[in-house]
Amino acid sequence: MIRDGIKTITLATLALAVVLGARGQAPADDANTLYERMAPIDQYLMTDRNTEIAFARTAAPESISRDAEVLVLGRHGYETAVKGKNGWVCVVERSWMAPFDDPEFLNPDQRVPLCLNPPAARTHLPLTFKTTELAMAGQSKTQMFDSIKAAYDKKELPLPEPGAMCYMMSKQQYFSRKIGNADPHLMFWFPKTDDMFWGAAFPDSPIDVHQYSPQPITEFDISVSKWSDGTAAPKN
Amino acid sequence: MNRKFVNTIALRSLALVVVLGVAWQAQARDAKAPYPSMAPLEQYLMVDRNSEIALARSAAPESISKDAEVMVLGRRGYETAVKGTNGFVCMVERSWTAGINDPDFWNPKLRGAICFNPPAVRSYLPITLKKTALVLAGLDKAEMFEKLKEAFISKELPAMQVGAMSYMLSKQAYLSDQDGHWHPHLMFFIPQMDADSWGANLRGSPILASVDAEDGFTVFLVPVAKWSDGTTDGE
């Protein structure tokens, strides 16, 4: 649910999301899209389990991630690699969690660590698991879109709980060649609401907004000044 | 509401925050505290109404504050100076919105410029207005918090709404004697949630929190890079 930590990308994607939303249609297959279908599954997997565990934990300061549950991606989906004790869950999400209209959707190089707080672990992770299951089953983007929409329509997937949020502060996170590791930021999820709810997406607001589709979810992003290792992020 | 955070950031040390919290409590009991009681009302008022409107609006980017309602403090409480169209409300809070043990609680120099989003307007702003009414009626701090507690119990004051938050990006604000305008930041008001739920106050976390027992919710605070005028916070 993550990806667009950078305002320019967010706004560009948001514009497209609005168009798609207005049409009420699934995204049409686009011959120009780089990653219309899944690459071989091995390209999405990390060969070393311990590396993935360490990578997942870089999403948040050690004070949070050291006691978090850690999930790693296997050939049959995410599995618990480390049990936690503080209610947080850290995971490296793959590109199928990007918005359906994102050109990086299904990009096998994308690696995005998140640490989810307890409300987000309860309400965001089910979406991560469902989307991962669909992607690994080889569904096309359109099929995945329809399946996710149906899951929300049938209330099989929960809406964000109040206070659902996550940390994305890994200096090693990778979104795409264009934006690289973006910036360290926090993300907050709500059942779909309007941009003005937090005053986001207005000139000079420190808050970005992303309206997802078909997920009935609004995401607010706030950039922070440091990576999880304590080093300062570039000011822009 | 935000006084405690000011010192928190300035010291950049969680351990010191704890020490400071204890120190504040001690100071609150100290008769030599710099502001033991309310100063004459005139000291809390701003002479020029337009200056107060401008200061209130400086809490958020102009794109938000230009269409916000603006309230100013008069002798009988806050009053609407400018009607808004976007659901936000900007105002300049005075020191009595600080926590009960804050040494600046009666500091007449404090000017907390703040813009509330619509859920906060409906659920946080009534608390500020209530506190102000009680203070202007002459109640001391203990009496004010007791009345406030009764107002929560009787549901005269509403529960905090989901998504309630505010902007505090004014470079011209004055939040405490120790830290002046401090840093630009956003504040989030969450009922019945402890600080750990957002990983706040932990080493390396970009989030600070204060459980406001008197008001029944937790305030989460996230510093941001720029002031409302677009200039970068200089650390």
Architecture overview:
- The complex is a heterodimer of chains A (236) and B (235).
- Chain A has one domain.
- Helix content of chain A is 26%, strand content 19%.
- Chain A contains six helices and eight strands.
- Chain A has helices at 7-23, 49-57, 62-65, 118-123, 125-136, 141-153, and strands spanning 69-74, 77-82, 89-93, 112-116, 165-168, 185-191, 207-211, 217-223.
- In chain A, strand 7 (207-211) and strand 8 (217-223) form a beta hairpin.
- Chain A has an eight-stranded mixed sheet, with helices on both faces.
- Chain A is an alpha+beta fold and 236 residues long.
- The radius of gyration of chain A is 16 Å and the shape is globular.
- In chain A, helix 5 runs antiparallel to helix 6.
- The model of chain A is unreliable at 1-32 (pLDDT under 50).
- Chain B has 235 residues and is of the alpha+beta class.
- Chain B has one domain.
- In chain B, strands 2-1-3-4-5-6-8-7 form an eight-stranded mixed sheet, sandwiched between helices.
- In chain B, a hairpin with a 2-residue loop joins strand 1 and strand 2 (77-82).
- The interface between A and B is large, with 38 and 39 residues.
Question: Top keywords for this entry?
Answer:
heterodimer, A: 236 residues, alpha+beta, eight-stranded mixed beta sheet, globular, disordered N terminus, B: 235 residues, 7 helices
Task: Give the C-alpha Rg of chain A.
Answer: 16 Å
Largest β-sheet summary of chain A: 8 strands, mixed
Multimeric state: heterodimer
Mind telling me the C-alpha Rg of chain B? 17 Å
| Count of separate DSSP helical elements of chain A | 6
Give the integer mean of the pLDDT values of chain A: 86
Number of strands of chain B: 8
Outline the low-pLDDT stretches of chain B: 1-31
Secondary structure category of chain B:
alpha+beta
Specify the overall morphology of chain B.
globular
- Helical content class of chain B: 25-40%
> Which parts of chain A are unreliable, with pLDDT below 50 for 5 consecutive residues or more?
1-32
**Helix and strand sequence of chain A:** HHHEEEEHHHEEEE
Major sheet of chain B: 8 strands, mixed
Order of helices and strands of chain B: HHHHEEEEHHHEEEE
